Amino acid sequence: xxxxxxxxxxxxxxxxxxxxxxxxxxxxxxxxxxxxxxxxxxxxxxxxxxxxxxxxxxxxxxxxxxxxxxxxxxxxxxxxxxxxxxxxxxxxxxxxxxxxxxxxxxxxxxxxxxxxxxxxxxxxxxxxxxxxxxxxxxxxxxxxxxxxxxxxxxxxxxxxxxxxxxx
Length: 167
What we know:
The protein is mostly helical. It has helices spanning 14-28, 39-90, and strands at residues 2-4, 7-9, 133-135, 144-147, 163-164. It folds into two domains: 1-32, no CATH class; 63-164, Glycoprotein, Type 4 Pilin (2-Layer Sandwich). The N and C termini lie far apart (90 Å).
């Protein structure tokens, strides 16, 4: 037997086998038994992945921002429900000095406190890790419960808009 690269042929079939081998090599452009991608193919795939990432990442970041605003709105509703439960038990809403802390820990001078009305201390923080603002008596209702949004300042639009309980 004669060794010829990967191809092993018998001496009697040498000419015919070599013709077939080289005919297949001419058709495919590659040696038989080799596989893989060329550098150009890899670069094209990387360029396509880069374009997809350039389009998808800003969309995903936008969804994340909107999700924080929606989370804050849901938290405001939950805090409002906890405040209402507190009022049912105590007969009044927490005053400004007690604040939202009264929903988690019993104020010293309250006798009928049946809390905690919130499971976690972190429930009084907005999605941007700042405390929700509470005012009693409120200017827009019995109490005012609000967050200044992503920028932490009054006013703004989009993610920076104020989130309030009275609207």
